[in-house]
């Protein structure tokens, strides 16, 4: 397990064995790299607009809006459930390509020898959250999940392999990178809340999270 990062408060909790395989790289992207990535994302989202996924069966809308980059994208709706597909659910077009900086982050942080296939773009407006869940719609759990944060700081929560396992929380700020690998790959996790006014990157606040995943077995 390799852990780096802030040492104060609840952040120290991420060193606990329950989250083995969790890797944090605070400040992985500097301000210039964050701004460049944001520009690339704006262009991509013009082609593949944010959509509102809905829950399997109930059709209840997510509060987080989403889009994707790369050969595959994660989508969810009432009838089809959670899945990956090669095209945007509303435009029917293929997802835009992943910018180079994301491919580099995947290899530098995740250290997995095959390329990522999906980059989920999560848009958190102020007041939105993501409930505790596992990332398990992929065929390949050997590959890590690599995530990058932009904009306002998130209070991120992670537990163990069972929903009822104890959880701990820490902050993910703009430019921070994280990988869920090894024992943490299937750990329950979520976002409790977005802390307003913590970043000037997005003019109207809010947070963007980019989650890179390998979907198929190489
Ligand atoms: O926004 C985050 O930091 C986590 C996102 C997440 O867990 C997911 O997209 O599966
Ligand atoms: Fe997740």
Layout of secondary structure:
Elements (H helix, E strand, L loop, with lengths): L21 E4 L5 H17 L17 E5 L3 E5 L3 E5 L14 H11 L7 E7 L5 E4 L11 E7 L2 E5 L9 E5 L4 E4 L8 E6 L12 E7 L5
Antiparallel strand pairs: 1-10, 2-5, 3-4, 5-12, 6-11, 7-10, 7-12, 8-9, 8-11
This protein binds 2-oxoglutaric acid and fe (ii) ion (FE2).
Key features?
Jelly Rolls, single chain, binds fe (ii) ion, 13% helix, binds 2-oxoglutaric acid, Alpha-ketoglutarate-dependent dioxygenase AlkB, alpha+beta, 2 helices, six-stranded antiparallel sheet, 218 residues, dioxygenase, 29% strand
Could you walk me through the main structural features you see in this protein, from its secondary elements to its overall organization?
- The chain is α+β, with helices and mostly antiparallel strands and 218 residues long.
- Helices cover 13% and strands 29% of the residues.
- The protein has two helices and twelve strands.
- The chain starts with 21 loop residues before the first strand and ends in a 5-residue tail after the last strand.
- It binds 2-oxoglutaric acid (AKG) and fe (ii) ion (FE2).
- 2-oxoglutaric acid is lined by residues 120, 122, 130, 135, 147, 154, 156, 172, 189, 191, 209, 211.
- It comes from Chelatococcus sambhunathii.
- Residues 115-216 form the Fe2OG dioxygenase domain.
- Pfam families: 2OG-FeII_Oxy_2 (PF13532).
């Amino acid at each position: 397990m390799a852990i780096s990062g802030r040492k104060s408060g609840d952040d120290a909790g991420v060193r606990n064995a329950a989250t083995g395989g969790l890797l944090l790289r605070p400040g992985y992207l500097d301000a210039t790299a964050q701004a460049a990535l944001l520009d690339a994302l704006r262009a991509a989202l013009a082609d593949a607009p944010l959509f509102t996924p809905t829950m399997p069966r109930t059709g209840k809308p997510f509060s987080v809006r989403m889009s994707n980059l790369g050969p595959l994208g994660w989508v969810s709706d009432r009838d089809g459930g959670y899945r990956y597909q090669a095209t945007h659910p509303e435009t029917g077009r293929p997802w835009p390509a992943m910018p180079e900086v994301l491919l580099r982050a995947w290899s530098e942080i995740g250290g997995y020898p095959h390329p990522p296939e999906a980059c989920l773009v999560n848009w958190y407006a102020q007041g939105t959250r993501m409930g505790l869940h596992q990332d398990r719609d992929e065929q390949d759990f050997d590959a890590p999940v690599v995530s990058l944060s932009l904009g306002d700081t998130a209070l991120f929560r992670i537990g163990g392999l069972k929903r009822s396992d104890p959880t701990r929380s820490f902050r993910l700020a703009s430019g921070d990178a994280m990988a869920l690998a090894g024992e943490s790959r299937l750990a329950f996790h979520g976002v409790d809340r977005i802390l307003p006014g913590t970043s000037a990157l997005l003019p109207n606040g809010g947070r963007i999270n980019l989650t890179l995943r390998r979907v198929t077995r190489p």
